[in-house]
Amino acid sequence: MVLDFLLPSPPKSWSADKTSAFHAGITAPTKASIQPVGRHFLAHARRYIHSRTFSEDEKVISEAEAAAKAALKDDDEGGSEGDEPEDPAMLKRDPKDWKDQDQYAVLGLSKLRYRATEDQIRRAHRKKVLRHHPDKKAASGGLHDDGFFKCIQKAFETLMDPVKRRQWDSVDPAVSDDVPNPKSKSDFYKLYTPVFARESRFSNTQPVPQLGNAQSSQEEVEGFYDFWYKFDSWRTFEWMDKEDGEGHDSRDDKRYFEKKNKAERAKLKKEDNTRVREIVDQALSLDPRIKIFKEQANKQRNAKRLEKEAAEKRAIEEAAAAKIAEEAAAKAAEEAEKTAREDGKKNKELLKRAVRKEKKNLKALIKDNNYFLPAGETAGPVEVEKQLELLDALLDGAKGLDQLEAVRKTLEDGVKNGNIAEVFKAEVAKRS
Amino acid sequence: METVVIGINFGSTNSSIAVLAPNGHFNVIANADGERMIPSAVGFQGDEEFCGTQALQQAVRNPKNTLEGFRKLIGKKFEEVKVPSDATHPDMVSKDGLPAYKVSFKDQEHIFTVPEVVTKQLKHILEEAETYLGSKVTGAVLAVPTYFTEHQREVLTSSATAAGINVLQIIQEPVAAALAYNFGQNPTKGDAQDKTALILDMGASSFDVTVLSVRSGIYTILETAHDESLGGSSFDDELVKFIAAEFKKKTKLDVTGNKKALLKIKTSAEITKKNLSRTPGAPCSVESVAEGMDFHATINRLRFELMSNKLFAKCNELIEHILEKADLTAGAIDEILLVGGATRMPKFQSKLRDIFPETPMRLDQESDEAIAVGCAAQASLIAGFEKEDIVASTKENITVTPHTVKPIGVVGSKGEFITIVPNHTPLPVKRVFEFGQAEQGQQEVYFALYEGEQDALPEKKEKVEKIDIGSDDEDEDEDEEDYIPVKPTFHQTTLLAEVVLKDLPVAKAGELKIEATLQVDITGKTTITLREKKSGKQVRAESA
């Protein structure tokens, strides 16, 4: 109740220290009966019996409600096996045809199918029995119709026996055996992951490698295809056997049927193996990862080849270059030789000329300087001859221009110093 | 074992069964004959015993051995019972002081006491319910009229137990109807749904009027009245008289003394009356009324209303009478709940408008099924409880509780009295209400609690032609010729308490919301709590 008015300030006469004042009690109440109906009365009675106040009661009730809600939730999670709606057609099935019934649907497990655990099957079965037991139906006035109950029992027997369950799972029509359309445009992983997951159930070796995704490593992918090409399936087609092998009077009949069934089973098994093979082949051919891996391998191979080719080319080039360089060097050497030879000739001539000049100079020098006789000696022809012979010997002894020049200088110095005679003698002695 | 509980309306003429369906709605169960109304009748013919529809079908041929209307004899002594002994009624004898029926059954004279007959009828009802539900019924709630004494209830319980019914609780018919209409059952913090209803239950053989108040979902019967001369069959009788007269006009045959002929006419008349509630004219045909002569006619609704005008007037008189007894004005009635097949009559409803021109009238439940539905609702509520707990909680120490006499409230800004706890509120009570505003900058608020008193009832005016006015409030603003009864108004009389909440944060007007909690316990001790919602600042005061 919201009252739309202002609460005033306390009146002037109100003393500041008071917070409340009671002036009168309410008019004495009269006793009257309240009607013991409805939930509000129940709340009233509850409060009275437990002597709770309004707020205490509210608290207790809300706590109880929360607890009840939580309990209900827990209960729900306890297992929804067997809670599926029941198809009325299924309920009317003739238990004689139990082999054709959907064993999982009968127990209300059509969603779980081959994934149902033994525990789940047990629980679903119990629920169904509680619902469909003939005694219960009779009690509720129904007819003595226990057809569906028989179906339940058969389904339970089948699914609890591991051999029979495998036989049934092998031919469960509700699980598709399709090979995906290779031309399908849809995502490869989306298309094939469920297919392989589905086929995995038949594998003798568990766990089964799964398709994975685009990020799977090459090893994984190769391992996957490797596994599936060697797929070892337990799938069996005994459920489809035409006639029960037993119950034939004649041994021949029995053998005949056994043989026929065996052949049929083998045929189906072969077909199934082909089918799996087809799936794997198709997947392999469509697998984008395989394409990527191939490309990568190609690239690697190419890279190696190119490197080799480049090396060869480089070697050839280098060899060619070396040859050219060699030739060039040879040519240069030849030319240098030639030049050197030509230069040598000229030099020789120059040298000769210089030598001659030096010799001339020396001869002139000797003539000018009294034939290098010691001062005071007059050059007679004998002395002159002797001196000239000595000079010749000296000149012969002094090979090359340098020596000649050195000789000349020594002699010139001797001339200057006035001891030419001694110098000359020494020189001759030194050189000849 | 799964609990399956049903509600049984064991009426004096018809019974019905209701059950809470899983979808949350209440289903009324049809019997093997497809009837949702199972006649309360037991018949014996030859070697066979009939109950319900079949018993009624052979009633015309076999009136001596067909037992009807035995509900009102429950728990009565033979001396208390008026015995109509003639050719159309079974013979009644006294057996151990109890009224008993003497019938011929299996070519022998048998005597069945009233409780035994009730057991037969209830057993039949239980069987019908169990056939329909396909499971065992673990408990049932039954409804009885308000005038049933404690002794009568006990007899009914033991009869029901003998029939194999686990009686969870016996509740009052008008209360069951209120429950079916979900009247005032959803009080919220903001709206306590304090209302007063007038429950009009016109069954086949009686007219029960009840003034019921609801306070926080708890019902208190303020006043009841009933008239057994008013009821669906009284209207049938009017119609029978008319048809007999018509028949006499046509055939010169007087059937007034011919009980068998009258019974035949009555069976048809009842159907015609029901049809008239829907259509303005209905055919009536009785085969071989007397001496092989048939009766065929179409009866006009207006004709029917004219002939039963007196009965309608009597209904209104009873209503006015009860309002006077309860010291209420017509305006104090918030809702009218219609129960019982006969309340479907258009004239009945239009007549009510004379007293209650604007009061909402509720007929949204199938009116003759409302009581059974209410019983089923109550049954589903208490289904999980132990029997002892149910018995313990209906003991007087819990059901008899002090009720406020005068309204408690506050005085509004215009000096008007605003009711917080109305009168007739069972104690203890807790009410939470909120004051929308506080003045700007105001740091202290003052709260005063008053007891109020209803403004004086206006003088009863003379009846105006055509329009029956029960009571009208005289108000200055109202024109004298305005017949609309206004809601009763109150004025404050006594200051009960004053409380001040201090040190409030400074805020603009309207920003602070102050929540007040008022509790009154059974001794009348008052506790007031004022709490400012934002700051959580509060003050609590308790009377000595």
UniProtKB/TrEMBL annotation, chain A:
Ranges where the J domain occurs: 102-172
Any one GO cellular component localisation term in the record: cytosol
PROSITE patterns, A to Z: DNAJ_2
Subcellular location(s) of the protein: Cytoplasm
CDD domains: DnaJ (cd06257), zuotin_NTD (cd23953)
Superkingdom, natural source: Eukaryota
GO molecular function, one term: ribosome binding
Protein name in UniProt: J domain-containing protein
Automatic annotation (TrEMBL), chain B:
Keyword hit for Nucleotide-binding: yes
GO cellular component terms attached to this protein's record: cytosol; nucleus
Alphabetized InterPro entries for the sequence: ATPase_NBD (IPR043129), HSP70_peptide-bd_sf (IPR029047), Hsp_70_fam (IPR013126)
Superkingdom of source: Eukaryota
Keyword field: ATP-binding, Nucleotide-binding
UniProt key word Lipoprotein: no
GO molecular function terms attached to this record: ATP binding; ATP-dependent protein folding chaperone
One Pfam match: HSP70
Family: Belongs to the heat shock protein 70 family.
Name the UniProt record assigns to this protein: Hsp70 protein that interacts with Zuo1p
Organism the protein comes from: Podila minutissima
